[in-house]
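Batch job 17 of 40 flagged for manual review because the log was empty.
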Amino acid sequence: MNYQNNFLKKRDILSQIKFVVVLAQFVQTSLPAWRKRRYKGSFVAKLNDCEAEAAETQVWLKFAVKCQYISIEQGRELYGTYNQVLSGLVKMINEPESWLIG
């Protein structure tokens, strides 16, 4: 029974790590918003998508810490990194004109 619990916990950990990686990749791949800088509405919509995904990643990071998938220190470091990402995205959303081209 203990073997089975360890297996399930490791599978859950790998699943959560994969999910966080996928979310992080989504944030990166959503940055083709950068190419949409000619169109304010499209640009802001893509930035909003990025913001939502970054915020969702923070929720999963909290979950990973509570389930002890990652340490508190790792969670704080990653959470802080995502705070910086969110800060930059919010600034761009609030002042898109300074980022538009054309």
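Reviewer: the log was empty due to a logging misconfiguration, but the result itself is present. The chain has a mean pLDDT of 79. Unflagging and moving on to job 18.
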